[in-house]
Amino acid sequence: MGSRTYRAEAIVLKTLDLGEADRILTLLTRHFGKVKVIAKGIRRPTSRLAGYAEPLSHATYQLARGRELDVLTGAESRSTFRAVREDLDRIAAAWYVAEVADRSTAERSPAAPVFDLVETALRHLEAGHAPALVCRWWDLHLLDRTGFRPELGVCARCGEALREATNAWSPYDGGAICTNCVDSSVAGLPALSVRALKSLRYLLASDFAAASRLRIDETLERELERHLRAFLHHVLDREIASARLIDELARLPRRTPASV
Ligand SMILES: [Zn+2]
Predict the structure, then answer these.
(1) 233 Cα: distance to centroid of ligand 1 (angstroms)
(2) How far is the CA of 166 from the centre of ligand 1 (A)?
(3) What is the mean pLDDT of residues 38-63?
(4) pLDDT digits (tens, 9 = 90+) for 159-172
(5) Counting C-beta atoms within 10 Å of the first and last residue's C-beta, which end of the chain has fewer, N or C?
């Protein structure tokens, strides 16, 4: 019966409680893409697998093929992301990453590059990097690896090279558009500042180690967030619910002591 069970390294993207004690886990596996599995009895106090069945759990799961859903039968932890779980800003960013990953992948369709990105993003959140920087790096590389890389070199509408001026951002056209095209467009498009364009190019061309050297003030951070969220909203054709939590946290008074 060996072929009935298999092992899969995975990160839990979301969970759905079912009946009295069961839970359905949406796993993003390294090798088999996104897989929904059932964890039977996981909500009983005696369950020895409960710690592996939470959102953001990262483990090697042992699974048995089932008629409809595969069944969780065992797990070995890979990382706990303890620091992420203890900090609201970081956990909101991690939920955002998980939600976008869920929306960007299809079940049972290989998604190793997306798995790598999720794992990288969570690891850097755990290491204490700024959640906003991790999220923007994630947005760009996720779009790139799923075939939706924003156009940042030439105008996405007319193909002319972008001048070093305030251009515009048009998710509908697929990226930055030039001043000529802005002038001729009917609807007002959000402005794309020179430094935002340069930052987007830099983040897209960089691994996280290089990206983390980028200095971003709050104004630029907000602009990058607006543009990339609008782009993802267009590509995914829906709002990202966890982005609202990030916004609410941003409105809270800062917890660092203020200068008097
Ligand atoms: Zn143009």
Answers:
(1) 22
(2) 13
(3) 95
(4) 999 999 999 999 99
(5) C
| Alpha helices by DSSP H, 1-74 | none
Q: How far is the CA of 161 from the centre of ligand 1 (A)?
A: 8
Question: What residue ranges of the chain are covered by domains with CATH 1.20.1440.120?
Answer: 85-250
The CATH 2.40.50.140 domain(s) of the chain lie at 2-80
Looking at domain 85-250, its CATH class is mainly alpha
Give the pLDDT confidence of 3-45 residue by residue, as tens digits: 699 999 999 999 999 999 999 999 999 999 999 999 999 999 9
Taking the domain 2-80, which CATH number applies?
2.40.50.140
Strands (E), 22-179: 22-29, 33-39, 58-64, 70-79, 167-170, 175-177
How far apart are the CA of 190 and the centre of ligand 1, in A? Answer: 15
155 C-alpha to ligand 1 centroid (Å): 5
Identify which of 35, 32, 174 has the alpha carbon closest to the alpha carbon of residue 102. Answer: 35
